[in-house]
C-alpha cells in the first residue's frame, strides 16, 4: 500500500437480504483516497453514500471486494481489531450529535481519551485544545441540554478530533443546523484538515458542505458516476 494512501477500495459489492432476495446497495466501486483529502460522497438518498461510509469505518462489511483503511485490510480483521482501529485512528461525526446527556462538554470530549487509556493530565490538555479549536472554551462545564444545535455539533467535532485521528468520517454533519451554523462548522473542519493533515470524508447531499470540498465523488444507484477535483473550494477562496 502506498505511503500516502489512506483508503483503497477495489471491486466493492454490498448487498442486503430482503424478503428472500438481495438489494444491491453498492456495486463496481473502486476508490483511492490519500492523506489530507477533504472529500465528499455525494448523492440522493439511497445512492449508497452512507453504506460506503460505514464500510470505510469498519461498521459494515462488503459482500465482495477488498477494502483497506489506514494500512489495514478490513476483510482480514476481526470485530475487535476494527474497533481498535476506529478507537485509535478514526473520528466520527453524526448528524444527531450522539452526545451523552449527563456528561458536560469536557466529559463528552474526554471520553475517547479515556477509552484509549490516555494519562489524566494529558487528557485535560488535549480536551482543552480540542474544545478551544471549536470555540467552546466558555461552555466546558455545560451539558448538552444547555447548548444550541450548533454548539452540540461543535462538541461532537471536538470529541471526534481530540485524539488527532488520521481519518474523520462525517455523516450529514450539518443536517440539523441552519445555514450560518453549517458554514461555521465547515470552516472549523476545513481549518482542522489543514492544521492536522487529517483526512475527512463526508456523506452528504447538502450544497453548503459541497462548497467547501476539494474532491466530490458522486454516487448514483450504488455506483460512482463522477469523481471530480474542485480547484477553488469556498474555504480556500
Write the layout of secondary structure elements.
Elements: E1 5-18, E2 21-34, E3 38-42, H1 49-56, E4 64-69, E5 72-73, H2 79-89, E6 90-94, H3 105-115, H4 120-133, H5 149-161, E7 167-171, H6 179-196, E8 199-204, H7 207-210, E9 215-220, E10 223-229
Parallel strand pairs: 3-8, 3-9, 6-7, 7-8
Antiparallel strand pairs: 1-2, 1-4, 4-5, 9-10
Helix pairs in contact: 3-4, 3-5, 4-5, 5-6
Q: State the order of secondary-structure elements, H for helix, E for strand.
A: EEEHEEHEHHHEHEHEE
Tally the beta strands: 10
What CATH first level would be assigned?
Alpha Beta
Helical residue percent band? 25-40%
Structural class: alpha/beta
Structure, explained:
With 237 residues, the chain is an alpha/beta fold. The chain has a single domain (38-57, 78-236), classed as Rossmann fold (3-Layer(aba) Sandwich), CATH 3.40.50.300. Helix content is 33%, strand content 30%. It is built from 7 helices and 10 strands. The protein has helices at 49-56, 79-89, 105-115, 120-133, 149-161, 179-196, 207-210; strands spanning 5-18, 21-34, 38-42, 64-69, 72-73, 90-94, 167-171, 199-204, 215-220, 223-229. The strands form 2 sheets. The chain has a 6-stranded mixed β-sheet. The chain has a 4-stranded antiparallel β-sheet with strand order 2-1-4-5, with helices on one face. The mean pLDDT is 92.
Amino acid at each position: 500500500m502506498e505511503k500516502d494512501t489512506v483508503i483503497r477500495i477495489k471491486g466493492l459489492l454490498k448487498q442486503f437480504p430482503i424478503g428472500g432476495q438481495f438489494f444491491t446497495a453498492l456495486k463496481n466501486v473502486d476508490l483511492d483516497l490519500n492523506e489530507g483529502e477533504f472529500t465528499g460522497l455525494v448523492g440522493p438518498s439511497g445512492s449508497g453514500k452512507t453504506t460506503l461510509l460505514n464500510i470505510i469505518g469498519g461498521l459494515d462489511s462488503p459482500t465482495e471486494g477488498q477494502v483497506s483503511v489506514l494500512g489495514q485490510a478490513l476483510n482480514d480483521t476481526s470485530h475487535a481489531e476494527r474497533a481498535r482501529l476506529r478507537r485509535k485512528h478514526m473520528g466520527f461525526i453524526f448528524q444527531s450529535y450522539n452526545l451523552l446527556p449527563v456528561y458536560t462538554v469536557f466529559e463528552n470530549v474526554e471520553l475517547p481519551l479515556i477509552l484509549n487509556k490516555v494519562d489524566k493530565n494529558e487528557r485535560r490538555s488535549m480536551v482543552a485544545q480540542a474544545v478551544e479549536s471549536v470555540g467552546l472554551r466558555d461552555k466546558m462545564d455545560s451539558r448538552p441540554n444547555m447548548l444550541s444545535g450548533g454548539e452540540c455539533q461543535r462538541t461532537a467535532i471536538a470529541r471526534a478530533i481530540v485524539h488527532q485521528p488520521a481519518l474523520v468520517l462525517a455523516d450529514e454533519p450539518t443536517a440539523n443546523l441552519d445555514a450560518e451554523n453549517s458554514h461555521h462548522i465547515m470552516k472549523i473542519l476545513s481549518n482542522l484538515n489543514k492544521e492536522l493533515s487529517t483526512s475527512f470524508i463526508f456523506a452528504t447531499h447538502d450544497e453548503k458542505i459541497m462548497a467547501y470540498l476539494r474532491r466530490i465523488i458522486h454516487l448514483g444507484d450504488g455506483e460512482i458516476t463522477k469523481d471530480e477535483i474542485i480547484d477553488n473550494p469556498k474555504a480556500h477562496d
